[in-house]
Specification:
Layout lengths: L6 E5 L3 H13 L4 E5 L3 H10 L4 E3 L11 E4 L6 H8 L8 E4 L5 H10 L4 E2 L2 E3 L20 E4 L7 H13 L3 E4 L2 H26 L7 H6 L3 H10 L3 H10 L1 H23 L3 H18 L1
The structure holds nicotinamide-adenine-dinucleotide.
Nicotinamide-adenine-dinucleotide (NAD) binds next to helix 1, helix 3 and helix 9.
């Protein structure tokens, strides 16, 4: 199979951008990679690893040779990055991104680049680490990559972007941006919010020392601390960009939590056991 793109540009060389570069090097070795990051330090660190064919902290005429640009910056920085690159883009360049929220990013990109062919994507893969050193080539293998083009998006462009992600080992699914945001609010955003809350609660207790919390961290709390170590800027942007869906899921979660609180208060062991049996069955059905 020939490579879907001869030259791509990756904007943002952190965890996701650098993982894409590494995966392209392995799976699509003939594809040229132009690397961009507004941080000169990140560019230098990416260059030291040897991730791309070119490194730039700003955009210039070379960007016009990119057949696809993938924005791998925090969701709240997508519009600024698109504005900065707009004067240097070729009209044929496909604009894509990897943002964890899709509706707000699509609106932002559409307002900055009204004529562009935009094929948003979200690889549902990541870790709690950031920066170019944190990336790895196999990050997308066997993971979902969700494309959220709007109605009337260029079908050939969508197919090329899908072929690109499949070449990196991902399984590609297409859905509406708003539906993506609802699904991810419950599968990813709410769990992160809970992890940030519980670790914050544990660090703020009177009568229990920090060292006791660390010393006696059993599996459950340890897993929360890993999630709560995720990048603060990225997650600030996710919650502000997917506000409606997150607040909706949070409301449902609060109601369910109150029901559990009541069951514990009134010794409703049968209610607790019924819920835990149901959740165990869900876990067993997804593994
Ligand atoms: P990261 O912090 O590791 O890297 C982001 C990079 O973007 C940084 O190097 C930063 O200097 C650069 N940047 C910021 N603003 C910029 C701008 N205006 N122009 C150019 N460069 C800019 O973050 P990451 O984890 O790679 O996340 C990047 C994107 O991927 C986010 O939109 C996030 O929602 C999405 N995403 C993250 C994960 C995850 O688990 N980390 C998973 C899937 C999708």
């Amino acid at each position: 199979m020939s490579a879907p793109f001869g030259t791509i540009a990756i904007v943002g060389l952190g965890l996701i951008g650098s993982s894409i570069a590494r995966a392209v090097r392995q799976a699509l070795p003939d594809t040229r990679i132009l690397g961009y990051d507004r941080s000169a330090d990140v560019c230098a660190r990416a260059q030291a690893i040897g991730l791309c064919d070119g490194y730039n902290a700003g955009f210039g005429p070379e960007l016009a040779s990119a057949e696809m640009v993938i924005l791998c910056v925090p969701v709240g920085a997508m519009a600024a990055a698109a504005t900065a690159m707009a004067p240097h883009l070729s009209p044929d360049t496909i604009i894509s991104d990897v943002g964890s929220c899709k509706a707000s990013v699509l609106t932002a990109l559409r307002s900055v680049l009204p004529e562009a062919v935009i094929v948003p994507a979200h690889p549902v893969a990541g870790t709690e680490n950031s920066g170019p050193e944190a990336g790895f080539a196999s990050l997308f293998k066997g993971r979902w990559c969700i494309l959220t083009p709007d109605d009337g998006a260029d079908a050939a462009a969508c197919e090329r972007v899908a072929a690109f992600w499949q070449a990196l080992g991902a399984n590609v699914e297409t859905m509406e941006a708003a539906h993506h945001d609802l699904v991810l609010a419950v599968t990813s955003h709410l769990p992160h919010l809970i992890a940030y809350t519980i670790v914050g609660t544990a660090s703020d207790l009177e009568g229990v020392t920090q060292s006791e919390v660390i010393k006696y961290s059993a599996g459950g709390f340890r897993d929360f601390t890993r999630i709560a170590a995720s990048d603060p800027v990225m997650w600030r942007d996710v919650f502000l960009s997917n506000k409606d869906a997150v607040l909706d899921m949070l409301q449902r979660f609060s109601e369910d939590l109150s029901a559990l609180q009541r069951a514990i208060r009134w010794d409703k062991g049968d209610e607790l056991e019924a819920l835990f049996t149901r959740t165990r069955a869900i876990r067993r059905s997804i593994i």
